[in-house]
Design a protein that fits this description.
Keywords: Cell membrane, Membrane, Transferase, Transmembrane, Transmembrane helix. With about 250 residues, this protein is mainly alpha-helical. The protein has one domain. It is about 60% helix and about 5% strand. The chain is built from 9 helices and 4 strands; from the N terminus they run E-E-H-H-H-H-H-E-E-H-H-H-H. Helix 7 (about 190-205) runs antiparallel to helix 8. The radius of gyration is 19 Å and the shape is globular.
Length: about 250
Amino acid sequence: MTFPFQFKLFNETFYWHALFETLAFFIGIRIYYFLKKRTSDPISDINRIIIMIGAMIGALIGSRVIALLENPAAISNQTFLTFFQNKTVAGGFLGGLLGVELIKKIIGVKISSGDLYVIPIIVALFIGRIGCFSMGIAEPTYGIETSFITGMDLGDGLYRHPVALYEMFFMLLLFIFFHKIRNRNLVNGDRFKLFMVLYFLFRFLIEFIKPYNPLFLHLSSIQWSSIFIFIYYSKFINRFFNRLNKTLLLQ
């Protein structure tokens, strides 16, 4: 394999990454509307649209800010173009979450709105990470050198952890898990909260096998974002584990 993966069209060379990013967005949206038609949604269509706009604006800002903080030493050399080009999914989730909560307060929606997005997000992430993997070391989703069996040459002659593949495998596990619990009687909003906690737990741990730049206390901006999510959802985490303990005791 030669990284990054490219194809030619009309005598022009394109990266597969752009195609998979577009597919991820398109398929994710289609799955969302497919599920929405089969779900009794307590939130009106107009409020859903407003909330989605809040999520997109928050994700746009958050993905760039967290990506900027991934390399603290280069902050002073940033231009608007480099700031806009760099982005991270974890920052997008964090910014999107804050954008949604802000918009919901403005329009007066107090109902949890995230459960409907879980499966579309998982599918979109899986597809998007195919594109990230296709870029090799040209995309900051590769790992440190390793002698482990999964090590791959991603374009620089070194055997590295294929972090994008790890995330794709994790998304597959999450898809199976959330499909298994689709009929469970959970509190509205708990599926999204559970997804966020599990995803950021994965991102917190996977950072240790990536060549990251520490932001503070030897932790990266993505790891600090993960800690923020754990604190933000601490009540849910506590309630979830209490319920899990009670279930195990009854068995």
